[in-house]
Amino acid sequence: MFSGIIEATGRVLAPIDPSAGAGGGRLGIGSVPFAGELMAGESVAIDGACMTVVESRGDAFFVDVSRETLRVTRMGAFKAGDRVNLERAMKLSDRLGGHLVLGHVDCLGRIDSREISGNTVFFGLFVPAPHHRYLIPKGSITVDGISLTVNQFRDLPDQQGSLVTLAIIPHTLAVTSLGDRQVGDRVHLELDMVGKYVDRFRDVDGEVPSGG
């Protein structure tokens, strides 16, 4: 479990090597300030995708990326030097500064616009169907592992999705990879966990069944 509060950024050491790893490939992340504290088996979210550490050396750690993860994320397109967002799994005693994040990427979104107003950057983010159904005004969304607030959104039936407006402050741009994102870039999205559970337990009449 994660909170969506980015702990640090790291740099991709090299594109995924398909000759190593469990059916997918091995990914190394360097320039990580807490790499020396990591032990094999620990969970680290890389751009919002929960991964298991298999090795750490110096300021780098390595994970095995499965074929399924390659299918639902853009990790297969990572290039050497790309900056990625990192968060270690929460402790039960931690403050929940963002929101409840599982580290399971639901889909890829797309940056459709980027505009500057004062000291804030406004991103237009396209969220594809059916995942757009979990959006609510001022609700939470995880973008590349970052807990963000849905400023506003509008449905785009002809494009089968919704366009979300995100207001990004200078601090977030500085300490995460979101400052690197440009129009057309794909990003990892995880929608609100609570909304997904409520949706799953609705009955055929659209009501939430009672317990007991």
UniProtKB/TrEMBL annotation:
Catalyzes the dismutation of two molecules of 6,7-dimethyl-8-ribityllumazine, resulting in the formation of riboflavin and 5-amino-6-(D-ribitylamino)uracil. Lumazine-binding repeats lie at residues 1-99, 100-202. Pathway: Cofactor biosynthesis; riboflavin biosynthesis; riboflavin from 2-hydroxy-3-oxobutyl phosphate and 5-amino-6-(D-ribitylamino)uracil: step 2/2. Its EC number is 2.5.1.9. CDD domains: Riboflavin_synthase_like. It catalyses: 2 6,7-dimethyl-8-(1-D-ribityl)lumazine + H(+) = 5-amino-6-(D-ribitylamino)uracil + riboflavin. The keyword Transferase applies. Residues 1-99, 100-202 form the Lumazine-binding domain. InterPro entries: ATP_synth_asu-like_sf, Lumazine-bd, Lumazine-bd_dom, Riboflavin_synthase-like_b-brl. Keywords: Repeat, Riboflavin biosynthesis, Transferase. One of its GO terms (biological process) is riboflavin biosynthetic process. The keyword Transferase applies. It is an enzyme of class 2 (transferase). Gene3D superfamilies: 2.40.30.20. This is Riboflavin synthase. GO terms for molecular function: riboflavin synthase activity.
